[in-house]
Amino acid sequence: MASCKYKIYHCMILVLCSYRILSTSNRNKKPDGGMICPDEYVWNEMQNKCTSCMDGFIGRNCNVQCPLPSYGQGCQLECKCQPSDCHHVFGCRRSESDCENGKQGLYCEKSCPYPSYGKECQLLCKCQSQFCDAADGCFNGTTKGPVSNMTEENTAANEFGNWTRTSMKIHGKHL
To answer: Which of 49, 68, 93 is the last residue of a domain?
Structure first.
């Protein structure tokens, strides 16, 4: 009789431990199988894990835009401009001449479209798109292959070495 009580006791402990392990492993799961992520993280289906919020967003499931005047990763940066000029992802609106090489747009948020590159996207790559960097132009010494169906007319350097572009054509149409 003593051995029977001993076996039941062990079975009860095994059942209780198994229940505890299973209940804690499912605690953070959503009904769809994804995980409930901590604040400042969101479930990424493609990576099958919690990933940090995209720039400009915070909160549970990253569904809250940065409040003004905050912006950027984790809303850690602060706009030093008028609230109407502050974007929750990119910060203060700028003129395109303030953008770093290879960037354009009101917030310098866009890369230069191929074949353009450089400061204010004023230069043209003379290589295929996969070898053209938006900031620095052609890399690895590549200059062979068709550039694009875009042609440039009346391009000249002034006395300071800066390029000026008076007109461009794509498929024979002026831009």
So the answer is: 93
pLDDT, one tens digit for every residue, the chain (175 residues): 555 555 665 555 554 444 444 433 434 555 456 678 999 999 888 999 999 999 999 998 899 999 999 999 999 999 999 998 999 999 998 887 889 999 999 889 999 999 999 999 999 999 999 999 999 999 876 654 444 444 444 333 333 443 434 344 343 443 4
Q: What pTM does this model have?
A: 0.50
Buried b (16+ CB within 10 A) or exposed e, 122-147: ebbbebbeebbbbeebbeeeeeeeeb
What is the span of the domain harbouring residue 58?
Answer: 32-93
Q: Chain centroid to CA 69: how far? A: 21
Number of structural domains found in the chain:
2
